[in-house]
Design goal:
Blueprint: E1 8-12, H1 17-31, E2 36-42, H2 53-71, E3 74-80, H3 89-102, E4 106-109, H4 117-129, E5 150-153, E6 168-171, H5 176-185, H6 187-197, H7 208-229, H8 231-238, H9 240-245, E7 249-254, H10 263-269
Parallel strand pairs: 1-2, 1-4, 2-3, 4-5
Antiparallel strand pairs: 5-7, 6-7
């Protein structure tokens, strides 16, 4: 595999999943001018404690569009119900068509081991679409691919029943400001729903500057936890001195459909952050 300008497709369950889980790698791709498309398979209409589902459909689509405009990437929000996604044949065929039409080199998605049923459903759908994207008589209204793209699972911190087993670790320290800027677009989530759901809504400041600072601290805890959990892998990749000092990171597990992925291909699909070169 020789990819000079790899194309990335992120298939997440909700608007903001891509940014939350893979904002660093997305930032690295866009910094290098690589194409990125983000798809939220559900409409995000269940993610609030005060707003109606009808309101949220438009709000979350607008928030996603703001991210796409900011980073220069396509961003689609599909209509499937938030909190009610099922891995049906209809959605599988739509994902097959999406992968074929966009022709990505790298697909990012959720693991099947996840707390959220929508996350698990998307992971299952992508797994079921893998290989079938190469079968001409499946979803035959789109041209089949000659080979599967590489599928990688976005980082999570779940340990039961199976923890993430990363094949790739990425230093995202230099991109934290960019990730926070992307998340800041999802205001209905990061300043309203998620703090309410997490029992910390009283900690969110009233002013925009205070909100942004609070968001940076809140997200840093998660990104730092990823770096700490996979510290040994960071040291292996970046060396003892740099690997030990990396504050924030993302880690990716590559699907077993990506057989015989060479080190060169892996480095092209998961390029080292320029700040780490």
């Amino acid at each position: 595999m020789t990819i000079d300008s790899p194309r990335m497709l992120v298939l997440g369950a909700h608007p903001d999943d891509a940014e939350f889980h893979a904002g660093g790698l997305i930032s690295i791709y866009r910094e290098r001018g690589y194409a990125v498309k983000i798809v939220s398979v559900t409409n995000g209409a269940a993610g609030h404690h005060e707003r109606t589902a009808e309101e949220l459909i438009n709000i979350r689509a607008s928030e996603a569009a703001a991210v796409g405009q900011m980073i220069g990437a396509e961003y689609e929000v599909w209509e499937y119900p938030d909190g009610g996604l099922q891995p049906t044949l209809e959605v599988r065929h739509r994902i097959i068509r999406e992968i074929r039409n966009y022709a990505p080199d790298l697909v990012l998605t959720h693991r099947l081991n996840d707390y959220h049923p929508d996350h698990r459903a998307v992971g299952q759908l992508v797994q079921d679409a893998s290989y079938l994207v190469t079968v001409p008589l499946v979803a035959s209204d789109t041209k089949s691919l000659r080979k599967d793209p590489v599928v990688a699972y976005m980082p999570d911190l779940f340990t039961k029943p199976n923890p993430l087993s990363p094949d790739v670790v990425v230093d995202t320290t230099a991109y934290m400001e960019r990730i926070v800027a992307m998340l800041d677009c999802h205001r209905s989530q990061v300043y309203e729903w998620l703090p309410y759901n997490g029992g910390v809504i009283d900690q969110v400041p009233a002013d925009d500057e205070g909100k942004r600072e609070w968001l940076a601290g809140w997200f840093a805890k998660r990104a730092r936890a990823v770096a700490d959990r996979f510290r040994s892998q960071l040291v292996d990749v970046y060396g003892e001195q740099l690997g030990s000092a990396i504050e924030f990171a993302e880690a990716y597990e590559i699907s077993e459909y990506a057989t015989s992925l060479s080190d060169e291909a892996k480095q092209r699909l998961f390029p080292v952050a320029k700040a780490s070169l």
